[in-house]
């Protein structure tokens, strides 16, 4: 069942529940901020003190970074683009079977978006909430000129404790380290004992977040980069809408097109970034 609901302050979201799982998707940002399989711990992490306010990105879940990931060339523009704070349109929902719900949301260019980014576009988000969580973010160039995008499904995963986790699938991959501004190469699994903020390139195979008895598998299509980010102690203390010790309970693994994996989209062409998230034992 998919029900349209509102928080006390009017913040609108879709409440989804079926035989396999539950999910919540905010219309602002097309932002999935909850996904859990029935009788299991949530897969996505949501900050205990996240803002649910007009114009502010939710801290947790899956913010959609679009049409740029990180900072734009113009430092006055918002980090991670405007899609995550824009109001999306609820297009349709269907329930193909008792264990699956499908939802489509849309964001189109507007007077406000054209002031930030001078292109006409249509952005469609298809979400399938089932035994797995699948997202397809489809960018359609509705302009008469080409445009370039970078983007990310900025997934925050809930973990038992950051010291228990590792990320598999990135061995030997080159990465840009946002902390040192240098390029390096991964050796073995990624583990965490300090701040990590890296854009991995040439990523085509599934990634596995290993956390004691649970594994989370992230498979992507239309993406060749992945961001691995944990803010650790100092950045967590500086950041908005997050508790000081929250870095212990979350890890971001973002399915992306970032840095050299930017996509040039010709007029009227489209591109889909697809991520499927599932658990293994
Ligand atoms: C990550 C970046 O993708 O997003 C980090 O790599 C950044 O550098 C983080 O701090 C969170 O960004 P924001 O804008 O949601 O605070």
Could you explain the architecture of this structure?
- By secondary structure, this protein is mainly beta.
- It has two helices and 23 strands.
- It has helices spanning 111-116, 232-238, and strands at residues 2-6, 12-17, 21-26, 31-37, 64-65, 89-97, 100-108, 121-129, 133-141, 147-149, 151-153, 156-158, 165-168, 174-177, 182-185, 190-191, 196-201, 207-211, 214-221, 225-230, 250-257, 263-265, 270-280.
- The strands form four sheets. Strands 6-7-8-9-23-19-18-13-16 form a nine-stranded antiparallel beta sheet, with no helix packed on it. Strands 5, 11, 12, 14, 15, 17, 20 and 21 form an eight-stranded antiparallel beta sheet that branches.
- The chain is globular, with a radius of gyration of 18 Å.
- The chain starts with a strand and ends with a strand.
- The model has no long low-confidence stretch (mean pLDDT 97).
- The structure holds 6-O-phosphono-beta-D-glucopyranose.
- The site of 6-O-phosphono-beta-D-glucopyranose has 10 residues, from strand 20.
**Into which percent range does the helicity of residues fall?**
under 10%
Biggest sheet strand line-up: 6-7-8-9-23-19-18-13-16
| Elements, N to C (H/E) | EEEEEEEHEEEEEEEEEEEEEHEEE
The largest β sheet comes out as:
9 strands, antiparallel
Unreliable spans are none
Mean of pLDDT: 97
